[in-house]
Write a structure and sequence with these properties.
515 residues, alpha+beta, Dipeptide-binding Protein, domain 1, Dipeptide-binding Protein, domain 3, 2 domains, 7-stranded mixed β-sheet, 6-stranded mixed β-sheet, 17 helices, 30% helix
């Protein structure tokens, strides 16, 4: 019987020493408390009801709602509210051992029953990733929970561990009907985190106040965090330049990053976004179902030139379904470098020497990229009709009803390689409309990488690289470039966001020098 035990103490120590950027007490850091004034192009609209949360609702509520486990800088899962965990691939179980002495801010206990309740909430609402593989949840004792599964993979620790937990007691006592409780939770959040919600106004601001009873002794350093909603990048940049804000989250506008860096502001670089064209290739009536057409599109695009133009040296052109920063990157694999003549030849082979017309759906943020793609594809006889959609139609199509022809989109890059499965696996979380044709060979390699014989991403890495290469051979998608992603801060601010990932923020560790 295979059993694997995670011993967290050393991992926690390494994480604190190497990755927090602010270890030690206030005397060592020079932290002065105060209010960290942030600006962001997104703000939480759902504070404390997990089944309905958008990604920005999750990471921007990390001051209040903590995770069971999370990534370290190398993509390993390390405990947060968990103390450790054991996996048994033969018995199909995961056993969580929880930290003791932690309370939610309503005074109720963090324990195995609270974790069971949070898992069940996700299962009942079909929002717990891999929830379909949970047969039952067993509270073994006050701080031990065993998940009984009907399947197992190394990815499950991540999928289950990354959930953010709320107080079951606060939720259950907030109303007399399920509807009343859900309505209450949407605008209230009760967690175990270093802060509580002090003030919130939808689409305007949220303010967090220090939790004086936080379970990590000596933390948080800050007295408060305030996040203002400023969706206009130029206004946000001007606010930072004027010194009216201390930190700007999730900045992707290249010129703003360059300008503020030249003014001496501090830049934290994140992993960026994986940008691609996704084809409607599973539709037999679409020309994109023809492999030669997809190959022709890829050959026709000068990705280094467009990446340089759009990214001003900050974008990485992509030639496979992985960036060079990703553990699963296949060194030297570039199946279709820019070659307009080859693109024309392939279209002729597909019986389309007279050319064809395709739509590219994008949001207004992708207008410049679509214009550049339109120019290059036009050179080989592919006429592009831009379809610039509002956010509702765009996200409804990409993640719900599907699309026609091509969609210009981006996805997150995980340090653990699991974005391969989250976005492009056999049962993806995001691009799950069925538009993308996936070969039997590719799906088999994905399944092999998740075989229970592998206990970690490191063990499965060769199979992951095989899947990346197969996706390239299939011309499954058209990789474009990895974008720049940054957090911009005044020089006196110390934070590690978003160096690991855009969903990873440790606000308890953030601090400011006297200023």
């Amino acid at each position: 019987m295979k059993k694997f035990l995670v011993i967290p103490a050393a991992l926690i120590l390494v994480c604190i020493m190497a990755f927090s950027g602010c270890g030690g007490d206030e005397e060592e850091t020079g932290a002065t408390g105060g209010t960290l004034r942030c600006v962001s192009g997104a703000i939480p609209n759902n504070l404390g009801y997990p089944p309905e949360k958008a990604p920005s609702d999750n990471y921007l509520m990390l001051p209040v709602l903590e995770r069971v486990a999370e990534w370290d800088v190398d993509g390993n899962m390390i405990p947060v509210l968990a103390e450790s965990w054991e996996t048994d691939a033969d018995a199909l179980t995961i056993t969580w051992h929880l930290k003791e002495g932690i309370k939610f801010t309503d005074g109720s206990d963090w324990n195995a029953e609270a974790l069971r309740w949070n898992f069940q909430l996700g299962i009942d609402n079909n929002t717990l990733t891999d929830g379909q593989y949970v047969d039952s949840l067993e509270v073994v004792d006050e701080h031990t929970l065993t998940m009984h599964l009907n399947s197992f993979s190394w990815m499950m620790i991540e999928n289950y561990g990354l959930i953010q937990v709320i107080s079951p007691t606060a939720f259950e006592t907030s109303g007399t009907t399920p509807e009343e409780r859900i309505d209450w939770a949407r605008v209230n959040a009760v967690g175990t985190g270093p802060f509580t919600v002090a003030d919130w106004q939808r689409d305007d601001h949220i303010k967090f106040a220090k939790n004086p009873n936080y379970w990590q002794e000596g933390l948080p350093y800050l007295d408060a965090i305030e996040i203002r909603y400023i969706p206009d990048a130029m206004v946000a940049a001007a606010t930072m330049e004027a010194g009216e804000a201390d930190m700007w989250f999730a900045v992707s506008t290249v010129q703003n990053i360059i300008d503020l860096q030249e003014l001496g502001l501090k830049i934290n670089w994140g992993p960026g976004m994986f940008t691609t064209l996704l084809p409607d290739s599973s539709n037999p009536d679409s020309p994109l179902a023809i492999k030669e057409v997809r190959e022709a599109i890829e050959y026709a695009i000068d990705r280094p030139a467009i990446a340089e133009m759009l990214g001003q040296g900050l974008y990485e052109p992509l030639h496979q379904m992985a960036s060079s920063t990703w553990p699963g990157y296949v060194e030297g694999y570039d199946p279709r470098p820019y070659d307009a003549d080859k693109a024309i030849e392939l279209l002729a082979d597909a019986g389309l020497s007279a050319g064809l017309t395709l739509k590219i759906m994008a949001t207004s943020a992708g207008t410049d990229a679509v214009a550049a793609l339109q120019s290059y594809l036009g050179e080989v006889g592919i006429t592009i009709e831009p379809d610039i959609a509002d956010l509702g139609r765009y996200f409804g199509s990409v993640f719900g009803t599907g699309w026609s022809d091509l969609v210009y989109t981006a996805s997150g890059i995980n340090p653990s390689t699991t974005d391969l499965f989250i976005h492009y696996g056999p049962s993806p979380m995001t691009f799950r409309t069925g538009n993308i044709y996936k070969s039997a060979e590719y799906l088999a390699l994905c399944a092999e990488a998740l075989d229970p014989m592998y206990t970690s991403v490191a063990a499965a890495l060769s199979k992951i690289k095989d899947a990346i290469r197969q996706a390239g051979e299939d011309a499954m998608i058209i990789p474009l470039w990895r974008t720049a992603e940054a957090c911009i801060m005044q020089t006196y601010v110390h934070s590690e966001y978003p160096k690991i990932h855009g969903i990873m923020w440790s606000p308890e560790d953030d601090w400011m020098e006297a200023h």
